[in-house]
Every structure is written in structure tokens, then in C-alpha cells.
């Protein structure tokens, strides 16, 4: 099997939180640099479906009109000149308004859904009509090794940025698929119970060792820590 070089990229508070008011309300400059770095280190970036549902799903879309559609559960390969936004969506949670996501401002990303045969026929038919690329990587649960192999072979993606959330990050760590960790630290304490960089579903410890590579001081009192796979 093949796989892209996987870089985990996260913006956190000093106390390791990956969400909170410190992201949008206090450090726009660091947030802008995060988005620039994401595109510099990857040809595709992706998140779990929970994150995409919160930020990108259009819940006004009604897929019931596709109810009686017949699907063949074959990969829908659509090559693009734009970066790919990859959604790990095993059951079909996220309703994309279009096959292109404009994010951040003025940046076009081709939507690519990684799913399973657990996704409903109407959801697959909806993706196909919208000309949204999708691939299957398992029957009920996404097999990350299969998913990355298909990203590499079918879409020529050699560099992939994993950008959360905590659960999908933990699954990548569990499978030893992360080659590099890039943590941008904003100069704020959050103090909430929001998620940290990596959290297992069952709450069990997941210990992986990485080797320190580099630290960079950023503008606005931020830091970038880079660790490489042992």
C-alpha cells in the first residue's frame, strides 16, 4: 500500500485546546498564518465528519429526493487543479452545498468524501449529482490505510495535512500514520473542557513517541513546534 506524507497541523492554546474563543476573537494573524501553512505543506487537507458538519454542512439540503436511487458503490474519481478538502465521513453526515469549498476567503478546494458502504444510497446519489468526488474505504468503518492508499494512487496526493478534530487525530496516531506533527501555539490560556489535540473514543491511553525537529517563533507571540516520526 501507498500513502501520502501525513502532517498533523493544529492551532492550540497554551493549555492544548483546539477550539475556543482564543481562535476567532484574539489571534486573527496567527489564524491567517495557520491557513497559509496548511496549503504550503499539503496538496489536500482533511477533517472528521463532526468538524465538517459544524462548519460546512448545509442542513437545508434535502436528500430525500434521491431515496429510490440505485448506486454501484464504486469510487467517483474527480481530479482537480485545486487543493482537496477531504472529509472522513463513514455514514454521510455532511451535506456539501457544492463540489467546491471556498475556504479560507478566495481559496477554492475540491471536496473529496471518504466514506463506507454504510452511507445511504440517497447520500451517494446526492454526491454524484453534485459532482463531488468520493471513495469507499470499508464496509462500516473507514479503514485509514485503504483511504490513504486511494488518495495517493487515485488522486496523486503525495502530501496530506490532517487538521482535526481530536478523535480522527487519535485514529491516525493509533494506526501510526502521522509522519510529522506541527503545533501552532497561540499565546492564550483557554481553561475550558474543550478537546485537546488527540482524544481516543474509549478514553484509553495512546502513547506514541515523536522526535523533536524544530521550533519557530512566530509573530504575535506564537510558536510553531515541529516533531517528526521516530
From TrEMBL:
This protein's pathway reads:
Cofactor biosynthesis; riboflavin biosynthesis
Keywords from UniProt, A to Z, are: NADP, Oxidoreductase
Any one Pfam family here would be: RibD_C
- The residues covered by the Bacterial bifunctional deaminase-reductase C-terminal domain are 108-221
Q: Taxonomically, which superkingdom?
A: Bacteria
Q: Locate the coiled-coil region(s) and give their ranges.
A: none
**InterPro entries, per the entry:** DHFR-like_dom_sf (IPR024072), RibDG_C (IPR002734), Riboflavin_Biosynth_HTPR (IPR050765)
Query: Mind telling me which Gene3D superfamilies this protein's record contains?
Result: Dihydrofolate Reductase, subunit A
Name it: Bacterial bifunctional deaminase-reductase C-terminal domain-containing protein
